[in-house]
Amino acid sequence: MLTNDAFSSVLFLDISSLIEPMGYKLVEATKSEHKGSVSLRILCYKGSDAITTEDLERIYNVVYPRYAVLWTRDLELEVSSPGINRNIKDCGEFKVFLGKRVKVYSISKSSYVTGEIEVADDEALCLKSYKVEDSNESGEKIRIEYNDIAKAKLDYITEAKEK
Predict the structure, then answer these.
(1) Cα 82 from chain centroid (whole Å)
(2) End position of a domain, from candidates 41, 57, 80
(3) Helix axes 53-70, 10-19, angle to 10 degrees
(4) Which of 27, 54, 80 is a domain's end point?
(5) 139 CA to centre of own chain
(6) 26 and 47, same structural domain?
(7) Per-residue H/E/C for the chain
(8) Per residue in 30-86, pLDDT tens?
């Protein structure tokens, strides 16, 4: 099942406040401590544009100095993009990925449902141009409650170019 609290953690909100004015969205922030050092891993998204290594460097240069000062231990910071087939871990991610294709496993339909995220609110998401894989049901729009989703991921499709 998906979590529904990652986007409200203090760490997530703090890092979001640093990078959102720069035009980036935070997808995930995880902190782990071990043997006198702290590891911080953040995943960032740029919207419809592909995130570049220069973007990741800009984010690193803003985040690293802040946490190197706040935490008195050695800091290891990893900044990356979520990838094209990211497994979605928290319901809040659907809002970040508006307009992207997803593949969700619906418990009530006992099947995967694919479609483009049109709306994501606090309780459900609405997919447009959806298809239910096992039944070949398809349509314009479908609303799926978050508590009906067992797992989800971005659904990257390579479209063949016409010659």
Answers:
(1) 6
(2) 80
(3) 130
(4) 80
(5) 25
(6) yes
(7) CCECCHHHCHHHHHHHHHHHHHCCEEEEEEEEEECCEEEEEEEEECCCCCCCHHHHHHHHHHHHHHHHHHCCCEEEEEEECCCCCCEECECCHHHHCCCCEEEEEECCCCEEEEEEEEEECCCEEEEEEEEECCCCEEEEEEEEEHHHEEEEEECCCCCCCCC
(8) 999 988 889 999 999 998 778 999 999 999 999 999 999 988 678 999 999 998 889
Report yes or no on 161 lying in a domain: no
The tens digit of pLDDT for each residue in 98-143 reads 999 999 999 999 999 999 999 999 999 999 999 999 898 999 999 9
The pTM (predicted TM-score) of the whole model is 0.86
